[in-house]
Design goal:
Elements lengths: L4 H21 L5 H25 L5 H25 L3 H26 L10 H19 L2 E2 L2 E2 H41 L1
Antiparallel strand pairs: 1-2
Helix pairs in contact: 1-2, 1-3, 2-3, 2-5, 3-4, 3-5, 4-6, 5-6
Length: 193
């Protein structure tokens, strides 16, 4: 492992995960604000570590592996914490969709990498929009306090549904791309044989 700032930021994000979950679930009136701040810092370090790694040419196989793992873990923990505090079907459905998609797409990327076809399931612009909607939704739902008289939780809740719809759509795109890549490879091998 390379001990550079981008990798250290990723490890820091992983270290924040249990603190986020604990803070959100503490029975204090300020715990949600601290949890939202931790999630906000994690979201900023997610962007910053990738930016710095590219800028300083410090990309590494370890960082490429660990960064998406850290992202998925902190999102999953935050979503489960939100669901724990708001246990109802309206929150459970988008949480299940988002976590299920993350597991599916991660497994798909791993499988495609084993086949040497990882580039066919690279992150696209829709994935970035989905991630932005998801991160803002989680941040607002963790915070849950009114902002200028508007319920941050309800705005986040709406964004979570937008993220869930984009999640399903982007998963379908990933699965279709993988299907075409696998079939194209199988067809090419059949034609050679």
């Amino acid at each position: 492992m390379s001990w550079n700032l981008p990798n250290i930021l990723t490890l820091l994000r992983i270290a924040m995960i249990p603190v986020l979950g604990l803070m959100f679930l503490l029975p204090y009136p300020w715990s949600n604000v601290i949890a939202a701040a931790i999630f906000g810092v994690a979201a900023v370090t997610d962007w910053l570590d990738g930016y710095l790694a590219r800028l300083w040419k410090q990309t590494s196989a370890f960082g490429a592996f660990l960064d998406p793992v850290a992202d998925k873990l902190i999102v999953a923990v935050a979503l489960v914490a939100i669901l724990t505090a708001n246990a109802n079907a309206w929150v459970a459905v988008p949480v299940a969709v988002i976590i299920g998609r993350e597991i599916t797409v991660s497994a798909l990327r791993e499988w495609m990498a084993e086949l040497g076809l990882r580039a066919s399931v690279a992150v696209g612009w829709l994935g970035k929009i989905k991630t932005t909607a998801q991160m803002v939704a989680i941040l607002l739902m963790l915070y849950a306090e009114p902002i200028m008289g508007v319920s941050a939780f309800m705005v986040g809740f709406g964004l979570l549904y937008i993220a869930a719809v984009l999640t399903i759509y982007s998963m379908v795109l990933y699965l279709s791309a993988a299907w075409r890549a696998v079939n194209g490879t199988a067809e090419a091998e059949k034609n050679r044989g």
